[in-house]
TrEMBL record:
<keyword id="KW-1133">Transmembrane helix</keyword>
<feature type="transmembrane region" description="Helical">
    <location>
        <begin position="567"/>
        <end position="588"/>
    </location>
</feature>
<dbReference type="GO" id="GO:0005886">
    <property type="term" value="C:plasma membrane"/>
</dbReference>
<feature type="transmembrane region" description="Helical">
    <location>
        <begin position="636"/>
        <end position="661"/>
    </location>
</feature>
<feature type="transmembrane region" description="Helical">
    <location>
        <begin position="724"/>
        <end position="744"/>
    </location>
</feature>
<keyword id="KW-0732">Signal</keyword>
<dbReference type="InterPro" id="IPR004073">
    <property type="entry name" value="GPCR_3_vmron_rcpt_2"/>
</dbReference>
<dbReference type="InterPro" id="IPR011500">
    <property type="entry name" value="GPCR_3_9-Cys_dom"/>
</dbReference>
<keyword id="KW-0675">Receptor</keyword>
<dbReference type="Pfam" id="PF01094">
    <property type="entry name" value="ANF_receptor"/>
</dbReference>
<dbReference type="InterPro" id="IPR038550">
    <property type="entry name" value="GPCR_3_9-Cys_sf"/>
</dbReference>
<feature type="domain" description="G-protein coupled receptors family 3 profile">
    <location>
        <begin position="530"/>
        <end position="794"/>
    </location>
</feature>
<dbReference type="InterPro" id="IPR000068">
    <property type="entry name" value="GPCR_3_Ca_sens_rcpt-rel"/>
</dbReference>
<dbReference type="InterPro" id="IPR017978">
    <property type="entry name" value="GPCR_3_C"/>
</dbReference>
<feature type="transmembrane region" description="Helical">
    <location>
        <begin position="689"/>
        <end position="712"/>
    </location>
</feature>
<feature type="transmembrane region" description="Helical">
    <location>
        <begin position="530"/>
        <end position="555"/>
    </location>
</feature>
<protein>
    <recommendedName>
        <fullName>G-protein coupled receptors family 3 profile domain-containing protein</fullName>
    </recommendedName>
</protein>
């Protein structure tokens, strides 16, 4: 007699929800079990001379009823009687159950010391991997730690940053929600709302329509739906009067909404993206389903119930297994996909592997004990700590420590035309390929939700285009923001940048604030309109000064030229020519030579000019103070002491310039900030202190000249130029006093232009105030350029004095 080894299968076939109804989807699990057992029994190389059998028990999703049928199985009676069994010695080796019953079943089997091996279906549960608490419990599903990564990768692919979550309130759902939110936060994705869906009838009534209202009100167009087999999330949805057809749902294959008999559910979930564990096709399974019928398995009352509900057959007989009035060509293949799917589901694939895992384990145990003792089919020493390759070629590993992470097929649910109910593979996700290539999608195959004709968007705020940065909104998630234009000379060249970045010093931001362009090198050139104007002005004044010098040389013997020391006048005119010409050093492409000559030449020639004015004012003052021959002042005047002021003052300025050049001389520099889009070449003064010392010394000479000229302004003489010198020094000082604040407040080419303009104005002030009146008299009023009138006035004044005294 061939020994019989039993596998007991405990699964939910009749739901306990809002209404007790048969779950046609779950019956594929039972058929997968039968298919695997028949395939093994036909295999001469696996468990030869032995036959596998099975027992099928239903459980319901309620803590009060979940243990009812397991007790019936243990007792061997129609009713459960704790601590009693009328069964003969059991030769069962395994119990295959859902995750929802795994904990209770594992605890029960350990309590009764029944040497069974329990294999669980459904998502991977870390709690059930505790070998100390559950030594005889194994999980068939691979680890799903990569599921959150896969879903986030999908969201990033479509730029969905604003999503809602509907999660089962079971520990597995809470853990998934925690992991998913952490992964989303790392990738800048925000959660609009979280709705926990109850897993039991006791808590279902408290939900009411809050989740429905929340999803309706949500601005998120993408909703992530996660539940496990025992969740009542389907019942929660069916309690709503309508669902949103414009939402995109992302879920897992653990909750197969396509099996619902509610038409509005199918309509609403058209376009859903489903993460399903990747597995190979099992050869022969579809053909097995096509030929399966109740007459082939007459002892299975659940199969008869499925058939009667699907094909409107009448049930007769006390056992409720006899069917009448069924269509002749009735088969599972003729049923709509939403009622019974011919494609092997994830759960069925896990059951298929579970049966093979038991068979391989028993086979290995028998081989080890064959030579040592008689065959013992009891499972006392049965261990599933192994791995094997199933008939489809997939590696199955039951050691949770070496269990691999799951790979996922991404399916798209199509339901148009109505009742089509097809799941189309549109992509995959694998954690074993390089980052950036883990997700693959064929977007052209994706059918989106009803009413959506293009790839949907789900964002809290519209993306900030390049040139703008995100500005967080107070009290809102990070995905909700305003867009603010980048500040000047800052750019953002990507969408949704948190901060703008500064352009390098040699570049500038365009008006759109999305690119940096190289700045154009510029300087105060001769071709520049401003530079050309200054050059023309300097040359014109230089020529005019040369003309004045020629006039003075030509009329050197006239009283107006001789009266005020014509030698000093020549020196001052020559100095003014150089003053006008030195401004040309500030215009054009800067180089080391021009940078050094700019300030030193300016300082020396202006010192020469101002010291000449000082010498002229002292000469005038001494000339009118000398009234008695032989006095010392007369000796100073005759000996040319005032003329020595010029070389002394100039030498002091030369010494200051030498110290400047020796310590920190001027050099070529760039100014990248004064003018937008340009790098200005300028001459850096090197030592600012030395520059202001030179300028301060020049100012002190001008102040001294102004003071002496002011004292001599009222001295009686027809040709006394003290008033003109006073006014010229007033203009000179006013120009340079005004120059200082203006110079400090400008940058770049304007700063250079201000200095050139000050040089020209101060030089023109000296020229105009001192020499224009004299040249006017020389050229246009020659009658005033004579001593005769002056002598007549002196004689008349002396006569008047004599008359008064007599």
């Amino acid at each position: 007699m061939i020994p019989l080894i039993m596998i007991y299968f405990i699964i939910s076939l009749v739901s306990l929800c809002l209404s007790c109804r048969f779950q046609s989807k779950n019956y594929q699990y039972a058929l997968a079990l039968v298919f695997a057992i028949e395939e093994i029994n036909k295999n001469p190389h696996l468990l030869p001379n032995m036959t596998l059998g099975f027992g099928l028990y239903n459980v319901m999703h309620s803590p009060m009823t979940v243990m009812e049928n397991p007790f019936i199985w243990l007792a061997g009676l129609e009713k459960h009687v704790p601590n009693y069994t009328c069964r003969k010695q059991s030769k069962s080796v395994a119990v295959i159950s859902e995750s929802s019953t795994a904990v209770q079943m594992g605890t029960l089997l350990e309590l009764y010391k029944i040497p069974q091996v329990s294999l669980t279906l459904g998502p991977f549960e870390p709690l059930l991997s505790d070998s100390g608490q559950f030594p005889s419990l194994y999980q068939m599903t691979p680890k799903d730690t990569s599921l959150t990564h896969g879903m986030v990768s999908l969201m990033l692919h479509f730029s969905w940053t604003w999503v809602g979550l509907a999660i089962s309130d079971l520990p597995k759902g809470i853990q998934f929600m925690s992991d998913l939110k952490a992964e989303m936060q790392k990738n800048g994705i925000c959660v609009d709302f979280v709705e926990l869906i109850p897993a039991t009838l006791e808590s279902l009534s408290s939900l009411q329509n809050s989740a429905h209202i929340q999803i309706i009100k949500s601005s998120a167009n993408v909703e992530i739906l996660f539940c496990v087999t025992e969740s009542l999330i389907g019942a929660s949805f069916q309690s709503w009067e309508q669902l949103m057809t414009w939402k995109v749902w992302v879920t897992t294959s653990q909750w197969d909404f396509a099996s619902s008999e509610k038409p509005f559910l199918l309509y609403s979930f058209h376009g859903t993206l489903i993460f399903s564990n990747h597995h190979s096709e099992i050869s022969g399974f579809k053909n097995f389903l096509q030929t399966a019928n109740p007459s082939k398995y007459p002892e299975d009352s659940y199969f008869s119930k499925l058939w009667s509900l699907a094909f409107n057959c009448s049930v007769t007989g006390a056992s409720c297994k006899t069917l009448q009035n069924c269509p002749l060509n009735a088969s599972l293949e003729s049923l709509p996909p939403h009622y019974f799917d011919m494609s092997m589901s994830d759960g069925s694939y896990n059951i298929y592997n579970a049966v093979y895992a038991v068979a391989h384990s028993v086979h290995e145990m028998l081989l080890q004990e064959l030579e040592m003792q008689p065959v013992n089919t009891s499972a006392c020493n049965l261990s599933l700590n192994l791995q094997f390759t199933n008939p489809a070629g997939d590696l199955v590993n039951l050691n949770h420590k070496r269990n691999l992470e799951a790979e996922y097929d991404i399916l798209n649910f199509w339901n148009f035309p109505y009742g089509y109910g097809r799941k189309v593979k549109v992509g995959w996700f694998s954690p074993y390929v390089s980052h950036g290539q883990q997700l693959s999608l064929s977007e052209n195959l994706i059918e989106w939700a009803t009413g959506i004709t293009e790839t949907p968007r789900s964002v809290c705020s519209v993306s900030c285009s390049p040139g703008f940065r995100k500005t967080p909104l107070e009290g809102k998630p990070a995905c909700c923001f305003d867009c603010t234009l980048c500040p000047e000379n800052e750019i953002s060249n990507q969408t949704d940048m948190d901060q703008c970045v500064n352009c390098p010093d040699l570049q500038y931001a365009n008006t759109e604030r999305d690119q940096c362009f190289h700045k154009k090198v510029t300087f105060l050139s001769f071709e520049d309109p401003l530079g050309m104007t200054l050059v023309c002005t300097a040359l014109c004044f230089s020529v005019l000064t040369v003309v004045f010098l020629g006039v003075f040389v030509k009329h050197r013997d006239t009283p107006i030229v001789k009266a005020n020391n014509r030698c000093l006048s020549y020196i001052l005119l020559i100095a003014l020519i150089f003053c006008f010409l030195c401004s040309l050093l500030f215009i054009g492409h800067p180089n080391t030579t021009t940078c050094v000559l700019q300030q030193t030449t300016f300082g020396v020639v202006f010192t020469l000019a101002v010291s000449t004015v000082l010498a002229k004012t002292i000469t005038v003052l001494l000339a009118f103070k000398v009234t008695v021959p032989g006095r010392r002042m007369r000796q100073w005047l005759l000996s040319g002491v005032p003329n020595s002021i010029i070389p002394i003052c100039s030498l002091i300025q030369l010494a200051l310039c030498g110290i400047w050049l020796g310590t920190s001389p001027p050099f070529i520099d760039t100014d990248a900030h004064s003018e937008h889009g340009h790098i200005i070449l300028v001459c850096n003064k090197g030592s600012v202190t030395a520059f202001y010392c030179v300028l301060g010394y020049l100012g002190s000479l001008a102040l001294a000249s102004f003071t002496v000229a002011f004292l001599a302004r009222n001295l009686p003489d027809k040709f006394n130029e003290a008033k003109f010198l006073t006014f010229s020094m007033l203009v000179f000082c006013s120009v340079w006093v005004t120059f200082l604040p203006v110079y400090q407040s400008t940058k770049g080419k304007v700063m250079v232009a201000v200095e050139v303009f000050s040089i020209l104005c101060s030089s023109a002030g000296l020229l105009g105030c001192i020499f224009v009146p004299k040249c006017y008299i020389i050229l246009f009023r020659p009658e005033k350029n004579a001593l005769k009138g002056l002598r007549d006035r002196i004689v008349s004044k002396e006569t008047d004095v004599l008359k008064c005294s007599s």
